[in-house]
Each structure stands twice: as structure tokens, then as C-alpha cells.
Amino acid sequence: MSQRTLISIAGSPSDSSRSTLLLNALILRLEAKGVSVRRFSLDSFDPRALLRAQLDDPKNARFIAEARSAEGIVLATPVYKAGYTGALKAIVDLLPPEALQEKFGFGLATAKSRAHLEATAVSFSRLFAFFRVAHEIPAVTLLDDEVFDPRDHTRFSTGAERLLDDRAQAILRALG
Ligand SMILES: Cc1cc2nc3c(=O)[nH]c(=O)nc-3n(C[C@H](O)[C@H](O)[C@H](O)COP(=O)(O)O)c2cc1C
After folding, report:
1. Distance between Cα 57 and ligand 1 center (Å)
2. C-alpha distances out from residue 36 to 21, 30, 61, Å
């Protein structure tokens, strides 16, 4: 069995989240190739312990341990106030600076404004630089209008599907 493992963080607090749907579709592609993905979202944490960054909290401690042992990290977020969400920030803030060293990093964001998507892609790069990830896979940034097929809102657009296929391949290459 393959040992390839990564962690994902869904940064949207929304129950019907576009960015989380895209993340899940990416994860399905990776799992089909034998990658083990440990999924995290706001629901994985005790809110009080998360916001206080209590490192001895069992859920926080489990997240940190999973991040340390994974080979990469995949982030997904809606753009809130021209950046990634506070939920994602609170989760990532749990990690010590060396936790992602020598791993790969990838971010996915959805938003209403293209300018804010670009700002969020830059924020991902800054975050990965802080953690000294070895390899940053180019972010996927999609406007709300670009996520779904304009004729059938139960399906992703062709463009979104292509980007997910491309980044799944890039992640598989990064995992070796
Ligand atoms: C609180 C809040 C703040 C937002 N701020 C921005 C913003 O600054 N720029 C932008 O382009 N879109 C903004 N949006 C729109 C969302 O980024 C966009 O609809 C996104 O695709 C939602 O993703 P989700 O479905 O995964 O939650 C905001 C939405 C909410 C609810």
C-alpha cells in the first residue's frame, strides 16, 4: 500500500461551499490514485480551543501531528475581505513554523472579485514561504461564475474540471 499522505483544510464556514466542493473533487481524484488525505475543517476542532490555539487540546494536537507526518498540505478557502478566511487562519496558526518544511503546498480559492482572487493567491504564497514549503503548486483561483457549468449548476464548468485534473497531476508528481 502507498504511504502517500497529505492533509487538507477546508476554510469555508458555509455548509454549501463552492471552495469545499472543489476541494472534495480534487481529493477524490487523489484518493483514486492511492493518496491518503486527512481532511480538516472548522468542524474538526473545538472552537474555543482553536481560537485560543491550545496546543494540549486533543483535536488541535491531532491536527498538528497529522500535518507533521503528511507530505503536503492542500488549502481551500472562499475569499473574505480580500484574503483567506479567519477560519483557515485560525487552523493554520496552530502549526509551528517548521511543520511544513520540505513538503508541498497548494491553495484553492473562490471569490466574487478577480482582484481579490489574485491577492489571495499572493497570500497563499506568503504563507507557504513562511512555512518554507519545498514546492508550491500554482494556486487555483476561480470566480463564483466560473465554478459551475452555466447550463447545469449541478456540474463543475469545463474550466474548473481541467484545473482540478491539472493540479491533481501536479500533486501526484510532487508526492513522487
Ligand atoms: C463574509 C464574506 C466576505 C466576503 N468577502 C469577499 C471579498 O472580499 N472579495 C470577494 O471577491 N468576495 C468576497 N466574498 C464572496 C465569497 O468569497 C465567494 O462567494 C466565495 O466563492 C464563497 O465561497 P464558499 O462557497 O466556499 O464559501 C465574501 C463572502 C462573504 C460571506
Report:
1. 30
2. 18, 8, 19
